[in-house]
Write a structure and sequence with these properties.
binds 5-phosphoarabinonic acid; five-stranded parallel sheet; Rossmann fold
Length: 456
């Protein structure tokens, strides 16, 4: 993986972040590097623990006989799984027959509580051939608990033993799922206590669905380790892609670039942009600094897909408000090759395409868009995957988890909490009349009572 910052900095981009301004925050970046070395975050430590890894491999072997593997989880307990699935499994994985899937199960993710969506997944499954992995760090998220109860109700109504068809992936000690797993002997995996939801992709949360579908989880982990160790071994800010990128995004955000777009020029990598959106938004979108000052930090993350969004979003990126920094994802060697046939060779509208490699076309379109944006003074950078494989995807996770931690350090915020999300969860419990949330419900009713209605 390589990083091209040419179109993002210095005199290359009109009104862009200067190398001098990056140098001016070198001290802060070095303090961050040192603090990361001294006390690495949980998502780093977990990469070196082999016990859960072995348990994941053992579970993957045990449950592989099932035709369907259904993850029940949301947010950090779903997005990493979907990112890996999108990048590393063929698009039509669930439609392939067992032989083509190499006897690995299909993979579904039940995250939302949209009754139509939940039904559309559940009604296709032969329950006797299905195992459900209920993933929740807290063991209490309303959506996950609701879908778990629906699934369990369905199993029980078909007289199928839940113990053989349900796995819990949850905190080792805390929460309702852990208690049920102990009380009812439901097999379980552990999410290390020191790793938060959106940083948990390389814990059993993301590793179990990967291992059971035949993805090389050791390569995922080695990729993440490699990107973190290369970041930690480079003191020079101008040569360290994590520190450099953190400085670029931080300084642009201070200059009014409130939107950070990730535009993938690969369908397979598009789901990585979904994972990135959560990581960026929940980690950096904070009201206050660690010392309590109001900062309202964060850039709004947006995802886009090239070339499709060239025909949709790019007009705005080019000529709308100059409030964005764009990160392109580009692939050097695609896993499939299509040569465009030389049809209509006598017509100049087609002849330049005939004989070209389709991957050349998509990559040239990316370059053309990046340069056009640059000409309009719109900063952009490119993350280049040499190819899409488990090692490179692992590197991407390790890179972005380190980057977001660096950004949080620069803002002086708590990168690892999510008080805004917690309030929404609290209100849901109160409105759903959960026991113990009566006073919050009264508070909400009071607020609602003061609102003038504009329902039409
Ligand atoms: O990053 C986070 O902590 C959140 O997005 C959680 O992943 C999400 O709310 C789901 O939480 P849980 O895994 O506890 O069900």
């Amino acid at each position: 993986m390589k990083f091209d910052f040419t179109n993002a900095v210095g005199t290359n981009v009109e009104g862009g972040v200067s190398i001098e301004s990056i140098k001016s925050i070198t001290g802060k970046l070095h303090d961050f590097l040192e603090s990361f070395r001294q006390s690495p975050p949980g998502f780093v430590k977990v990469l070196s623990s082999s016990s859960e890894l072995n348990k994941v491999l053992e579970f993957a072997e045990k449950y592989r006989k099932f035709q369907n593997f259904v993850v029940v989880g949301i947010g950090g307990s779903a997005l990493g799984i979907q990112a890996i699935q999108g990048a590393l499994l063929p698009l039509g994985w669930n439609s392939l027959n067992s032989e083509k899937r190499n006897q690995h199960p299909r993979l579904f993710v039940l995250d939302n509580v949209d009754p139509e969506y939940t039904t559309s997944i559940l009604e296709t499954l032969d329950l006797s051939e299905t195992v459900f992995n209920v993933i929740s760090k807290s063991g209490s998220t309303a959506e996950t608990m609701a879908n778990y109860m629906v699934v369990r109700g369905l199993l029980e109504s078909h007289r199928i033993d839940p113990k053989s068809h349900i796995i819990f992936t949850t905190d080792p000690n805390e929460g309702a799922l852990r208690k049920i797993s102990i009380d009812e002997e439901i097999p379980s995996l552990e999410i290390p206590s020191n790793v938060g939801g959106r940083f948990s992709v390389l814990t059993p949360v993301g590793l179990m669905s990967s291992a059971i579908t035949g993805i090389d989880i050791e390569s995922l982990i080695s990729g993440a380790k490699e990107s973190i160790s290369s970041f930690l071994s480079q003191d020079d800010t101008l040569k360290n892609p994590v520190l450099f990128n953190a400085a670029v995004h931080y300084l642009y955000s201070k200059m009014g670039k409130r939107i950070s777009v990730m535009m993938s020029y690969s369908n397979a990598l598009y789901t990585l942009a979904d994972w990135y959106r959560q990581l960026w938004a929940e980690s950096l979108g904070k009201e206050r600094t660690l010392t309590g000052e109001v900062i309202n930090a964060g850039q709004t993350p947006v995802k886009a897909l090239g070339t499709i969004d060239q025909h949709s979003q790019v007009q705005l990126y080019m000529e709308g408000p100059n409030d964005k920094i764009i990160t392109f994802l580009k692939v050097n060697k695609f896993r499939k090759k299509i040569t465009i046939p030389k049809i209509h060779g006598d017509r100049k509208e087609f002849s330049y395409l005939g004989g070209a490699d389709m991957s050349e076309l998509i990559n040239i379109e990316q370059e053309a868009t990046a340069l056009a944006l640059l000409e309009k003074g719109r900063p952009n950078l490119t993350v280049i995957f040499d190819e899409i494989n488990a090692f490179e995807v692992g590197r991407f996770f390790g890179y972005y988890e380190s980057l977001v931690t660096a950004m949080g350090y620069l803002y002086g915020i708590n990168t690892f909490d999510q008080p805004g999300v917690e309030l929404g969860k609290l209100n849901t419990y109160a409105l759903m009349k959960k026991e113990g949330y009566e006073s919050q419900r009264e508070h909400i009713e009071e607020i609602k009572g003061k609102l003038k209605s504009f329902i039409m």
